[in-house]
Amino acid sequence: MDERGTDRRDFLRQMTAFAAAVTGARPALARAGEAQGRSGMKRSYDPAAKFELKVSEVEFRRTPAGRQLMARIYQPEGAGPFPTVLDLHGGAWRRKDRLAEEPMDRAIAASGVLVVAVDLRLSEEAPYPASVQDANYGVRWVKSKAAEWNGDPAKIGVYGSSSGGHVAQLLAMRPRDARYTTIALPAAPHLDATLAYVATRSPISDTYARFQQAERLKREGMIENNRIYFSPWDTIHEGNPQEILERREPVTLVPMLIMQGALDDNVLPAVQEKFAATYRAAGGVCELTVFEGSEHEWVAKPGPQTDRAREMVKAFIARQLKG
Known about the structure:
The protein is of the alpha/beta class. The chain folds into 2 domains: 1-41; 53-322, 3-Layer(aba) Sandwich (Rossmann fold). The protein is built from 10 helices and 8 strands. The protein has helices at 3-40, 102-109, 130-145, 163-173, 207-217, 220-229, 235-238, 241-246, 269-281, 304-322, and strands spanning 53-62, 68-76, 84-88, 114-118, 157-161, 197-201, 256-261, 286-291. The chain has an 8-stranded mixed sheet, sandwiched between helices. Helix 2 links the parallel strand 3 and strand 4 (114-118). Helix 3 packs across helix 4. The N and C termini lie far apart (72 Å).
């Protein structure tokens, strides 16, 4: 064979070997690409889904007085990352803790949501705005920690009940307010407390109207709860979501859900209707549903209206994640 034929044979041998190497590598590359796609893909939230939960307790933050605030983590067991919600408890700013809304937290989490319920400082420890400061820190803290619990920090939502709903509204409307951002998070100083949405049950949307209602009913305990939390007293107006809107302060208006009991004589349905209308007039989206035959804390008792409230929160979260 001449020199030209030898060169051609060597060339063909090299090309055959190259083709075989590429063909052999292609399935492995495809599998790697598919795996990367799966791991990098965000789970689409299905409110009808069912997950087993891993529940754990972690330290949240220590108060200036030395009390350790805790967080309860409701983590779905499965492929994530899962949408993430911070739960803020009620208790007239004076009582309760992260366990107050455990049945609701479990119901939301079992549909495929990472739920983090935190303790807030109580009014006799520190009046307004201490609990809002805790919540503001909580949003930033959860954003920094969500990935550790298989959560997605991109669109954090909040669920708040009664006085926790009041805190949630202030948190959403004033995420960068200097009155609320005083607790530093050195591990993630770049994070802020902006939210994607807020869901509430019986929120105290008008703090002064609620105080007036307590006076009309001569409920000394409710009157005292207000006076202890709003100290100095003028803060009942400064920290009033309804009055903030009426003053046309610059605020952030995230989509909001309000679930209200028709028989609630603590926070009146008419007050919620006024707040929802004012919120919409300011340019926000506010969904208000009044639950017939239901009092202030109806979700604490099993029943059709409690089931309906849980499904409503999950459906609301699903709409916000699609938006």
